[in-house]
Amino acid sequence: MKEAEKGGEYMRAYLFIALIIAILTGVFIFQNTAMVEVHFLNWVSPEISLALVILLALCSGALLTFLLDSVRYFQIASKIRELTVSNKKLQTENDRLKRQQKDEENKKGDVMADGRE
């Protein structure tokens, strides 16, 4: 299977899972509309809708995941650039060695042809 096709399948699976999570979250939010206070350390919020608390928690988690994944993405992109430069150098060296080998083979052929004459 081609890499592009694999990437497309992963994206479709990711979007499908995201859609399922969004639907389940929506159902959960609409079934939990009670007013609640949120306690965090010494801080207490005014009474707000449980749906809003759930939505804020979901968005905070998504943002945190995005930020952490962005760090990983930039690390991978940096490694790809580094490997691309290294690959380019190795290709150049390989081409040089192939030319050198071909030149040496041509010289051997010329010497053998001169020896026969």
From TrEMBL:
Keywords attached to this entry: Cell membrane, Membrane, Transmembrane, Transmembrane helix
Listed transmembrane segments: 12-30, 50-71
Source organism, top-level taxon: Bacteria
One CC-aspect GO term: plasma membrane
Coiled coil (residue ranges): none
Region (Disordered): 94-117
Lipopolysaccharide assembly protein A domain residues: 31-94
Keyword Transmembrane: yes
Protein name: Lipopolysaccharide assembly protein A domain-containing protein
The species this protein was found in: Syntrophomonas wolfei subsp. wolfei (strain DSM 2245B / Goettingen)
